[in-house]
From TrEMBL:
The gene is pgl. Pfam families: Glucosamine_iso. Belongs to the glucosamine/galactosamine-6-phosphate isomerase family. 6-phosphogluconolactonase subfamily. Pathway: Carbohydrate degradation; pentose phosphate pathway; D-ribulose 5-phosphate from D-glucose 6-phosphate (oxidative stage): step 2/3. Keywords: Hydrolase. This is 6-phosphogluconolactonase. It comes from the Bacteria. Its EC number is 3.1.1.31.
């Protein structure tokens, strides 16, 4: 792996969520100090949402100018607006309803009921392209931080092993027949994920240990999609001890 790929191991999933929340707040503050705004891509999943809850619970959240944060999603379950299983619904409940975001800068992926997933993917790609054009002059990466969970099968966002979406070069793709329910989803493609300055893979639980080991050993994105993601500046594997259990010894030093 390239030298900008790092591993940090925390004691358990609770400490992991708190530590990622602290890191995220700092990164948003730094991005805003540098370029006046910040851009983050959220993930669903248990650790992703626990991290957002930890941001909401942190007094340091007040250091972020939430009205100058663009919020994107890495993937979405193609369900009706407000469905409790939508990553958007969960992120709003965990964080976005509790901080003064500018709704015009919150970019949920399209929901079921307004066209096909393919149309939704195209609309999201167009929104993203408009954003990139509007911010070109800043020289900043499209996304400052992109959060990803990893499934036991090595999936990231809604890019599942051996599925055609992995080879799709479009920035946003429609996904059908996902092995994890619901089967229909919209996802950023690998190309858009690679447009992030930093990609953080946030992973907890022993069921993820083999996927983490294989991704770190560069098993290839067809088999283990997580092995194909890179940030421009940094790719950070933020793990709890259980998810790190199968990594080689040099990575086994967990923080207290
Ligand atoms: O839509 C989804 O199903 C999630 O976005 C998914 O990609 C998730 O991030 C991983 O499966 C890890 O989930 P856990 O953190 O719950 O293990």
């Amino acid at each position: 792996m390239s030298e900008h790929s790092t591993v940090v191991i925390h004691r358990d999933s609770g400490v992991l969520a708190d530590a990622v929340a602290a890191r995220l707040i700092t990164s948003l503050v730094d991005a805003q100090a540098h370029q006046g705004h910040a851009s983050v891509v959220l993930t669903g999943g248990s650790v992703g949402i626990a991290t957002l809850r930890a941001v909401a619970a942190s007094p340091a959240r007040a250091a972020v100018d939430w009205s100058a944060v663009d919020v994107w999603w890495g993937d979405e379950r193609f369900l009706p607006p407000g469905d409790p299983e939508r990553n958007e619904t969960q992120a709003r409940e965990a964080l976005l309803d509790h901080v003064p975001v500018d709704e015009a800068r919150v970019h949920p992926m399209p929901a079921e009921g307004s066209g096909s997933p393919e149309e939704g993917a195209e609309r999201y790609a167009a929104t993203l392209a408009d954003y990139v054009r509007a911010h070109q002059h800043t020289g900043a990466a499209t996304f400052d931080v992109l959060l990803l969970g990893v499934g036991p099968d090595g999936h990231v966002a809604s890019l599942f092993p051996e599925q055609p979406a992995l080879d799709d070069e479009r920035p946003v793709v429609a996904v059908h027949g996902a092995p994890k329910p619901p089967p229909t989803r919209i996802s950023l493609g690998l190309s858009a994920i690679g447009a992030a300055d930093e990609v953080w893979l946030v992973v907890a639980g022993e069921d993820k240990a083999p996927a983490v080991r294989m991704a770190r050993a560069e098993a290839g994105s067809t088999r283990i999609p997580a092995s194909g993601v890179r940030g421009h500046r940094a790719t950070r594997w933020l793990l709890d001890r259980s998810a790190a259990a199968e990594l080689p010894d040099q990575h086994r030093h967990a923080s207290p």
